[in-house]
Amino acid sequence: MPAMLLILLPLAIAAVAYVVPSNRVRLMILPAGGTAHLVLSLAAVSSRGSGRGGEWLAIDALGGLVLLIVSTLFAICSFYAPGYLLVRLDRDSRLFTSCLFIFLGMTSAVALSQHLGLLWVAIETTTLATAPLLYFNRSSRSLEAAWKYLMIGSVGIAIALLGSLFIAYAAHLSGSEVSLFFRTLHENAAGFSRPWLRGGFVFLLVGYGTKMGLAPLHSWKPDAYGEAPGLVGALLAGGMTTCAFLALLRGYAIIEAGGEGAFARELLVTLGVLSLLVAAAFMVRQKDIKRLLAYSSVEQMGILVLGIGLGGLGIFGALLHTVNNALTKGVMFLAAGNIHRAYGSKNVTEVSGAIRRLPMSGPLFLAGFFAVTGSPPFGPFVSEFTILSAAIRSDRWGLAAVFLAALCVIFIGMGTTVFAVVQGRPSEESLRHTYKDRLRKTLPIFVSLGLVLMLGLWIPAPLRTLLEEASAMLGARP
Amino acid sequence: MTLFADPVLVLVMLVNFVVLGTSRMRATIRASAAQGAILAVLPLLVQQEVRWHILVMAAGAATLKGLVIPGLLQKAMRDVQIRHEVEPYVGFLASLFIGAGGSGMAILFSSKLPLAPEHAGGLLVPAALSTVFTGFLILVTRRKAISQVVGYLVLENGIFIFGLLLIDAMPFMVEIGVLLDLFVGIFVMGIIMNRIREEFASLDTEHLAELRD
Residue B10 pLDDT > 70, yes or no? Predict the structure, then answer.
């Protein structure tokens, strides 16, 4: 039952937020709802079972990890949101708040789902719930972003459905009773028809890869993240992509159990490297800070699938990196949102001197940059280093070299833009904007950065256990 | 049972070519509606025994794909007063040829895949794959937002056909979920199309080309 509650509670809050007439009350609902969900998630994950099978919703290690990531990120964003919505009182916050909570409910459903079909339905619903969030600014540019996001996202999801059906047919051919519950799929996968299993994984990878924004399926990402409010960008880059990654991992676990793991890993490594290279190419000389963050997200997704593709230690690294990616994206997008608001622009030609203009958001943006590019002592350094050593341990030196080279190019390319933003003198025009850095809008970012820093220095024992159990579900032997 | 299903599937594949080859928007919407309605008959033909949930699904599919969604699209079309798909990225004749090539590939590819004895030799897999391909082709080659939605519908139709292979195995809830998602998806797309019209006074996605690097 607690599993069900994790989905129903946000949906109920969404309904309440839509009905409540007062804006002030609605703004208080946000942090309260976010905190309540986080507390419930923590309780549910700490008392997780192994999943008896036959249940539609249950918490296993892999889903529990994603649930915690999404819930933590949402809680952070929910404390940031009131400050943002207060300055945007010209916009109706009813639909916005409701969609945020529907998004939370549906991402929880993705994390808890134990069934390939249900997982698909939940991912599709998250897509639909986020489309109105993208269009919050009601400009022609945000409209274009929402349309592309919806169109490309829906096609991706449709292809993922075809992949799920292929896997079901692979099961059907083996003569076993067809059930799309993960537990049954894992148990019977060894007898599945190999061509259908392979085809199914390819379609799942293309479909959910589109939702993750892996190159070359990332064309919607810079537009969507570029036009979304910072808060929505954080939730998409940290939450939505994590959910899509989970869906891909569920597919990977099946094909791995079916004895075609090597085939899948080759595909993952290829797409991972391609994403790193594409991201590096587009991040150099990128003028728009939110689009820069979008390409950074393409890079991070590449690192995730690369880690899985390397197998063994790389799987642990990739899962740890999932946590780091979500929290770091929280820091970057929320800080970028504040900068955008203070300067009325997100173009680097008009934004400079952020450290002087914004004594908190500016340094946070800079620290976030160091974290996201994998500098010590932040968390991503540890996870990226783990993935790198997985490559070296399996004697894939060429791959390790390409990985390192791409990270270096990205560090320099992203650094050029970020330093231009934070250094120098704020322009006369930016000082005329009334926006001021307030603790209310920066404290959540500090918390997020604090967590990223903590993960770089120390991984709490329960989290480590969770990560190890989740890696074992993907065939990594400790 | 494939004895009865195959002529219907041939019809579905023919509709693909109608959608690919016509420029009149009303005709493409009608064609996709007809395709949706024809598809709704298929569950009745391919199953071994009649079960109530399949009847419900067939009725649901027929209403959604044959009436509701085309209705929404027709309304959008009337609102914005467009009748023709103009200057697609790939010409109508060319896209017909590509579509024919794709269908041929689909038939070849499906003959290589292992099939359960009850599906062997039938047209379900080739029809599904070629319809998916057609939908994808429309999506990437047409400019108008409505045409793109039609492409998405055709793509979904292809997946629906593939789902019929598993009609005895797929749980009811998922089937309904699929239909519901499709409906909500089109609904939200309809709203956005409406906004595009207000914003740009036409439904040409060419206007949506401001965002690029």
Answer: yes
